[in-house]
Amino acid sequence: MAAEVRSTRVEIRGLVDDDALEREFDAADVALLTQRPDLDEFNVPSRLMTLLARGIPVVAATRPASEVRRLLEDAAAGWLVDPASPEELPVALRRIAADPDDVVRKSAAASAYAAEHFSPEVMTSAFAEVVESVAGGSSRTDGLDR
User: pTM for the whole thing?
Assistant: First the structure.
């Protein structure tokens, strides 16, 4: 992939340690999240929650029916392009670069959405609801505290 980069403005970093990753997050105005258009989605990349919690809006090249797309639309925290149409990405990036106020708005929306939906309390409660529904609605803990 590095051989395909035709700009000095793009750097393929490879694996980075935790300190370098923190510096990258601190320096980021927006993030890019891509998914192959020919594969069915089976999860939401964990980095999406990290990015939103840090207030980093996301440019997402994802399938129209993807959960990533639904989250970003609900959060109003990003821009969406079709991964099957790669020519859309540079157009979207130019539009984003031309409107820094939109980046600020989407950054605030990302932080707010993450605080409301991804806090430990919210996630724990949602997990407990799933466990209870799978266990037939019983909240019994017989034998768990022994």
Answer: 0.76
